[in-house]
């Protein structure tokens, strides 16, 4: 299989798997089971992957990790917004 | 920064961020909030990333995604083991 197609399919699958968590948090407005330290570590790691993809000039890595950064930034914003309720 | 060091740091951060979920499930033996479809999609995507890393001969991608596959396979096993209790 072409490497780029493989990377894009892999990126779509790992990105899609993060959506249910975000949808759940937005619906239930409940973040007591989430760890903000974990979200921060994840955002740092994903951002480094974007940087790695830029250095290596690999579009599948840049796109899938940039998308994952956006999803997890949204999670972090939800965490800050809903934290008092929990 | 050297690309490989960058990739290894990125891989360690994104891998470490998955541990709290596994620890939580093993401690609480409760999986009712987990989606097995999400875990299966994630394992498929991560396995494709390992394959991508092998094709591109990039060790940071192979190692971090192989580790993530192991963590999520453990989650899936916990899911199957604790599912009846939930």
UniProtKB/TrEMBL annotation, chains A, B:
Pfam families: MtN3_slv
Key words of the record: Membrane, Transmembrane, Transmembrane helix
Domain of life where this protein originates: Bacteria
Transmembrane residue ranges: 6-23, 35-55, 61-82
Gene3D superfamilies assigned: 1.20.1280.290
InterPro entries, A to Z: SemiSWEET, SWEET_rpt
Protein's name according to its UniProt entry: SemiSWEET transporter
Native source species: Chryseobacterium gilvum
């Amino acid at each position: 299989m072409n490497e780029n197609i493989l990377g894009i399919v892999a990126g779509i699958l790992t990105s899609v798997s993060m959506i249910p968590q975000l949808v759940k948090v937005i619906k239930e407005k409940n973040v007591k089971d989430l760890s903000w330290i974990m979200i921060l570590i994840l955002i740092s790691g994903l951002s480094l992957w974007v940087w790695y993809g830029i250095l290596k000039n690999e579009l599948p890595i840049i796109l899938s990790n940039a998308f994952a950064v956006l999803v997890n930034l949204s999670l972090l914003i939800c965490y800050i917004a809903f934290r008092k309720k929990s």
